[in-house]
Amino acid sequence: MSINQSDQPSAVDIITVKLEKALSPISLEVINESHLHSGHAGSPGTGESHFRVKVVSNEFVGKSRLQIHQAINKILAEELNGKIHALAIEAKAS
């Protein structure tokens, strides 16, 4: 786990840990895309506001795309109600 300047886990680390715990993914990639949105209205300038999640998990078998996105949003609800402004999700069943 990487530590940022304030000795707090990064948003990437928090997202990764929560998704790993909840989904036991076969593959998981969490990408900080905040730099791509610098200066836009929803960007707080923290460098941790926009993320992309690429995940493959057996937990998604038999679920619709909407159900998968709802599950991920529920897992990350605290972050989405806090410092994360945008989350792009690329998810599929294994």
Please explain how this structure is put together.
A three-stranded mixed sheet has the order 1-2-3, covered by helices on one side. The mean pLDDT is 88. The protein has a single domain (11-93), classed as BolA-like (GMP Synthetase, Chain A, domain 3, 2-Layer Sandwich), CATH 3.30.300. The chain has 94 residues and is α+β, with helices and mostly antiparallel strands. It contains three helices and three strands, in the order αββααβ. Helices cover 30% and strands 23% of the residues. The longest helix is centred in the N-terminal third of the chain and has 13 residues, at 11-23. It is globular and about 40 Å long.
Strand order of the largest sheet: 1-2-3
CATH C-level category: Alpha Beta
* Structural domains: how many: 1
Percent in strands: 15-25%
Secondary-structure element string: HEEHHE
Summed up:
With 94 residues, the chain is α+β, with helices and mostly antiparallel strands. The chain has helices at 11-23, 65-75, 77-80; strands at residues 27-32, 50-57, 86-93.
Key features?
about 90 residues; alpha+beta; three-stranded mixed β-sheet; about 25% strand
